[in-house]
Design goal:
Elements lengths: L2 H9 L3 H4 L15 E2 L11 H11 L11 H11 L6 E4 L2 H12 L5 E6 L4 H8 L3 E6 L8 H6 L7 E5 L11 H10 L3 E5 L20 E6 L12 E4 L2 H9 L8 H12 L5 H20 L3 E2 L6 E5 L6 H10 L2 E2 L11 E5 L3 H24 L1
Parallel strand pairs: 1-11, 3-4, 3-5, 5-6, 6-7
Antiparallel strand pairs: 2-8, 7-8, 9-10, 10-12
Helix pairs in contact: 3-10, 4-10
């Protein structure tokens, strides 16, 4: 295609989509890297869940079940809800995008507690809407007054995550309820990491029609690559979101694995205990090495690096040792890295790499 033809094609894009650059090629991680940058749960599926996935492959020639009925029924039974209070999606990210499509048009706004899930910025941009980012207080208390009466008062909905990504912090459910009870707007609560936390807001669903809770099986149920997400809310809200989903939005493996996970949630107890133990072990070790680590209720740690270097420097230094971690673009987090919690050997490799880097810095300082 000539350049002139390409420009004609690109000029036909809608105004909003013309503002987005094409995505550059993604670098492929080197073989043998320890991947601690995307908060995955790196353990095998329990045997019965794996068996359900293999059995689903034998039905690959069939379309998936329409409207995810069996998965929604299983979720309703597991969480003591009615089926019309449940929506199932191709990961919770699909459900989040449905919310933006359903509630926002050009010129509208949504509010998000910041730092938060960066993907929300793109979702708002795609709707021609604004994302108002409301800063958490320094004590990580829920800024209810700001969300209700500050710049966010015109927002169509309010997004918050509990526990929060990327900080790992958790706020009491009583604070969440206070916000929901005082607001006449939709409150979207992302509970992606709730299985590592002390409490959940799910019991509030029957009390408040303006609360919508999102869950995913990517973090605590080791199914990130299978893409299973759930949403819980008032039947009228859920029904309208289901009405705009893609046809056959989930595949047969995702549907089968989701149902099986719900039937075998107790098979993940040891997995969750391990991650919580390793989280605290690594937190203590990093603290001893000069990092300032935020207490976490997730499967990751946010760590402020020792003085003298910033987060990107540490990310690059660790990558040279084949350890992948994340840095954050948010204001105030430039000196931080986010580290997923994996297996004990993975975390030992990470800590050994950190010690090597610090040792090399000390040696260079001594030589000067």
């Amino acid at each position: 295609m000539s350049d002139a033809k390409l420009q004609d094609v690109l000029s036909s894009l809608s105004e909003v989509y013309r503002q987005l650059n094409s995505i550059p090629p993604s670098p492929v991680p080197e073989a043998g890297c320890v991947k601690l940058n995307t908060n995955e749960n790196p353990f095998a599926l329990p045997a019965p869940v794996m068996q359900s996935a293999l059995a689903a492959l034998e039905r690959q020639y069939l379309y998936p079940e329409y409207d995810n009925i069996s998965l929604r029924e299983a979720a309703a039974a597991s969480y003591d809800l009615s089926m019309d209070q449940v929506i199932a999606g191709n990961g919770s990210s699909e459900l989040l995008s449905l919310i933006y499509r359903a509630f926002l048009g050009p010129g509208d706004s949504a509010a998000m507690l910041s730092p938060g899930f960066a993907y929300n910025r793109k979702l708002a941009q795609l709707q021609g809407a604004r994302l108002l980012e409301i800063k958490w207080g320094e004590t990580c208390l829920l800024p209810i007054h700001k969300l209700l009466f500050g710049p966010a008062k015109e927002a169509k909905f309010i997004l918050l995550a509990n526990p929060n990504n990327p900080t790992g912090t958790f706020v009491p459910i009583a604070d969440i309820e206070s916000l929901v009870a005082q607001s006449d707007r939709l409150i979207v609560l992302d509970e992606a990491y709730v299985d590592f936390a002390p409490d959940s807001a799910l019991r509030l669903i029957d009390r408040y029609s303006n609360l919508l809770i999102l869950r995913t099986f990517s973090k605590s149920y080791a199914a990130a690559g299978i893409r299973v997400g759930l949403g819980f809310g008032h039947p009228e809200v859920i029904g309208r979101l289901r009405n705009i989903q893609n046809l056959f939005n989930m595949n047969v493996i995702g549907q089968a694995v989701g149902v099986s996970i719900l039937a075998h949630r107790d098979a993940y107890d040891e997995n969750h205990r391990h991650i919580k133990y390793e989280r605290e072990r690594v937190k203590f070790a990093l603290s001893q090495l000069g990092f300032s680590v935020t207490p976490s209720h997730t499967n990751f740690l946010l760590a402020r690096v020792p003085a003298g270097r910033d987060g990107p420097w540490w990310q690059t230094s660790l990558k040279r040792k084949k350890i992948l971690v994340t840095v954050l673009p948010d204001d105030g987090l430039e000196d931080c890295i986010r580290v997923s919690i994996g297996t004990k050997p993975q975390m030992d490799a990470f800590l050994a790499a950190v010690e090597d880097i610090l040792g090399a810095q000390t040696s260079r300082s001594s030589a000067v």
